[in-house]
Amino acid sequence: MPIVVQKYGGSSLADAESIKRVARRIADTKKTGNDVVVAVSAMGDTTDELLDLAQEVSPVPPPRELDMLMTAGERISMALVAMAISDLGYSARSFTGSQAGVITDGVHGKAKIIDVTPGRITEALGKGHIVIVAGFQGVSQGTKEITTLGRGGTDTTAVALAAALRADVCEIYTDVDGVFTADPRIVPSARKIERITNEEMLELAASGSKVLHLRSVEYARRFDIPIHVRSSFSQKTGTIVTDQPGPEGDAVEAPIIAGVAHDRSEAKVTVVGVPDRTGMAAQIFEAVTLAQINIDMIVQNVSATDTGLTDISFTLPKADGPAAVESLQRIQDEVGFTAIQYDDQIGKLSLVGAGMRSNPGVSATFFKALANAGVNIEMISTSEIRISVITRDDLLDDAVRAVHTAFGLDSSEGEAVVYGGTGR
Amino acid sequence: MPIVVQKYGGSSLADAESIKRVARRIADTKKTGNDVVVAVSAMGDTTDELLDLAQEVSPVPPPRELDMLMTAGERISMALVAMAISDLGYSARSFTGSQAGVITDGVHGKAKIIDVTPGRITEALGKGHIVIVAGFQGVSQGTKEITTLGRGGTDTTAVALAAALRADVCEIYTDVDGVFTADPRIVPSARKIERITNEEMLELAASGSKVLHLRSVEYARRFDIPIHVRSSFSQKTGTIVTDQPGPEGDAVEAPIIAGVAHDRSEAKVTVVGVPDRTGMAAQIFEAVTLAQINIDMIVQNVSATDTGLTDISFTLPKADGPAAVESLQRIQDEVGFTAIQYDDQIGKLSLVGAGMRSNPGVSATFFKALANAGVNIEMISTSEIRISVITRDDLLDDAVRAVHTAFGLDSSEGEAVVYGGTGR
């Protein structure tokens, strides 16, 4: 029997009515002849409410206990979903992450899945049950502590289960119809993407698209699991994320550009007046890295020949800003730079498409679109299938719309090109 | 180092402020040189809220999934208590029932503890941590399913942990000052009992006193664990439940009567016109027992010689009333009785005291008090240390007050007699 893994997020499980609707969908999937395994998030705002409670009793709660607390949210929703399914006449069994065999490392709050040993799941499927698994959580190898995978982790739970069970597809249910060419709240003419490669989805997720958890895409890519991102509020087909050939084979031409992503979660740090000597940049980034901060883009200005000084700018998550500035202040005298500037009024725009590899004109069109829209570019970084720029925060929406239009992605500008190629 | 086990109920953990107060009390116990293990219930009304949610998605939720759901409540409170303790500068580790080694049978909703394997608890104590355990829950032997112990089960968790850890005392914190000679809401002059034997406490708990879960007293008696019932809202000494000699040794005389309990949770079923032949009663009670109903008191009237018919009355939990009536109706033709009467307007009053064994005057005083108060007695049952009667529901409060006064239990009628004997 084919195995379908489904994931339902908190917005699809907001209240008893939503849970019943989700249960009907799960039962329908079972009825059409599939074994069904479901990963669920906590209901609606449960996670935020639990975080608030934690804050009330302790400003800096120990990570181990915070994980204990947070995992209760999924335990509640999984049991309720199982009850709602059984009320429809199907048998369902819920399992905690630990019971489901989701083995992680021991990093509380952002644990990584090391292995999945789904013995209890396959046993339950063999008995004809529908299986509901608490998402977002696991148990640490060896120490057997309860861990969580970080925000959005239930996507990863679902894909990891799909990989371990050799499922035919992993369906990620959310409150939008799929992955769009841009955020529809900013670009009303954005189009739903029919098919997208793992590589492109990875770049979109890393560039600010919030539809899929980055780690879940990495996991799906590694284990070659097709993901179907779709709405739990409709029956429409959503977006297929896969490197496998589509139903049309290789014949249909793929679009050059998959979509435009934007990100307002980063800030920019500029270290001013760094002596232009070997090892200075290394010293700066070592200090920041030691503070466990993930740096995104980096730009080092060409040294002005008359001063022997240079400026180094980098972007990082806003939440890590204070820690980064503090760690830099500690090495200021040693390195001998002039000043640290911190700027959180920036936005990042990224254009993603596997087709840009073989289309050298992409960057020219991209920069012309931004120039015509009056958007000044502060930093640039590129990968083989992505161009990202940093702009002023208040120009970001205009920039996204200008680029979206320039690449013919607006839904009014022609029909959606169905991607069906494997050659990308 | 002495080990103290504490239990905090939902009313002591109603909100963040209550949790912080409980955390301070736990930290103080640690500070005075004890290893501390704490069993916690779900916060305030959490259990009822989760039950409501379950009802919304399924009128008859599967017991396994209901247990999965309910256990989330204790997981939330245990993590919050651990956080609040760590905020005071002490290290705390929380464990689910399963992690704490609470092994039960597989009866969802009212599982019995079979064994406690507290390896992780002793390891954590050895490292100097305060241990917080989710009450009310365990994991079934063999099948490893999450189970719950039924309402009030956290008392039993605490006593079972105390037994497994050979703790010096098990402190049950609640919202009253201890066990009283009667319910203070009905008898304002009721006195707090200083010391009470396990046997008396068992009879009180079985007769409607709600301060301690019946099963926890059975457990404490079997493993000889002293229980200290006290308020989490004050520093007062509460009630010590133990068969061990008190600080005064055997010299002080124990009171004859421990207290008066009442119970409004039962109903009375009368089977009218039963043919007075051998085996008729057996057939009736077999039918009721097969419906998994616990019968409390039974009275069979003497057969009227002219008719050859008799009446049989018994009491049972009100919740089981419909099932009992239904099971009797099924055997009515076969047994040939005339009618079934169902009466839920009854109350039960119980007088409990180990001293009545050697004081034959107790029952005379008891019945005289009831007669003087104008209370008609419908059924009577006795044990060696208890007399129980069934009265009309609306006379129950008067009856309790009359009996309480007749045995000199009112606090104004002389000082409390401290129990210190072992001979009882």
Automatic annotation (TrEMBL), chains A, B:
PROSITE patterns: ACT (PS51671), ASPARTOKINASE (PS00324). GO terms for molecular function: kinase activity. The keyword ATP-binding applies. It comes from the Bacteria. It catalyses: L-aspartate + ATP = 4-phospho-L-aspartate + ADP. Pathway: Amino-acid biosynthesis; L-lysine biosynthesis via DAP pathway; (S)-tetrahydrodipicolinate from L-aspartate: step 1/4; Amino-acid biosynthesis; L-threonine biosynthesis; L-threonine from L-aspartate: step 1/5; Amino-acid biosynthesis; L-methionine biosynthesis via de novo pathway; L-homoserine from L-aspartate: step 1/3. Its EC number is 2.7.2.4. Residues 269-345, 351-424 form the ACT domain. Keywords: Amino-acid biosynthesis, ATP-binding, Diaminopimelate biosynthesis, Kinase, Lysine biosynthesis, Nucleotide-binding, Transferase. Pfam families: AA_kinase, ACT_9. InterPro entries: AceGlu_kinase-like_sf, ACT-like_dom_sf, ACT_Aspartokinase, ACT_dom, AKii-LysC-BS, Asp/Glu/Uridylate_kinase, Asp_kin_monofn, Asp_kinase. Catalyzes the phosphorylation of the beta-carboxyl group of aspartic acid with ATP to yield 4-phospho-L-aspartate, which is involved in the branched biosynthetic pathway leading to the biosynthesis of amino acids lysine, threonine, isoleucine and methionine. Belongs to the aspartokinase family. This is Aspartokinase. It comes from Fodinibacter luteus.
